[in-house]
Task: structure prediction
Amino acid sequence: MDHNLNDTIALLTRTPAALNSLLRDLPEMWTLRNEGDKTWSAFDIVGHLIHGERTDWMPRARIILQFGDTRPFDPFDRWAQERESQGKSLDQLLDEFARLRSENLDALRAMNLQPADFERHGRHPALGVVTLSELLATWVAHDLTHLHQISRVMAHQYREAVGPWGEYLGVMHCAGHSS
Amino acid sequence: MDHNLNDTIALLTRTPAALNSLLRDLPEMWTLRNEGDKTWSAFDIVGHLIHGERTDWMPRARIILQFGDTRPFDPFDRWAQERESQGKSLDQLLDEFARLRSENLDALRAMNLQPADFERHGRHPALGVVTLSELLATWVAHDLTHLHQISRVMAHQYREAVGPWGEYLGVMHCAGHSS
Result:
């Protein structure tokens, strides 16, 4: 197993606090602007992370433990936050993300997973057979892919302001790489 | 001017707290591992940010205000942290970064910059003429490029562990883009 539960929980625990420290009370030019049509702002990304806490990671872990690979995961709605974040402030979203993450990590610890459990199979609707270990590692990597994205979206707002330095700033040349 | 000093200071103020929330007491597999030969770990990156606080941003702002473009900036040593971080813990580096950033932002505010000051010219040893506005915007974007990098370096540690999900995770496909 390439995946260590303590390392995974250590990082999952810190993401809400890191986003809170970075984003709370920041001017809206940083948090509400995106990279153009059909792209996400930091506000949208926090909403997406909340939707993942509600419908993706722990629900899928429970499906694996209960049904194995006989019942595919429910597909994930990548645009749910457009609906669910409406009328909320970023402060509310940051609080909600922290609360849901904390509850989910409590539930994960309470599962008392044993080494053999990590190799149990589930079925992703598009990717096919995956393991519980891969699901938990992806939860972490998903946090990191969105921290990577938030950094890039915010840097994009200063793409003109940095002048010739843009050449040296890797984040200004990142295309996102998401499918 | 594409650059607003309040927006710039708001973000520069938050970076040390965000890195502290993300990295302090995190297992060393996240903070000390890099992406391979001649690449940086999160520990190395915090050391690099410290060196920037000491030798790059405010010293260059002072050169612009004092000498304009008649005196080029001193070149920046991208590997100084190899020497300067030796024997220190990540906790010490996080504290040092927070302290230096806070002192530098106090000094920046004390400059009481006026609109015309932002257009004053300096001379970058490789890029040629730049403005004070561009320097300050680059200070922010440099924070973001390294937050982007830290996310990527940490995600790299789980590149095998995520299994087939790697396909969907943009951060796993990021090559860094730095020159």
Helices of chain B lie at 5-23, 28-31, 42-55, 57-67, 80-84, 90-110, 132-156. Chain B touches chain A through 64 residues (CB under 8 Å). DSSP finds seven helices and two strands in chain B.
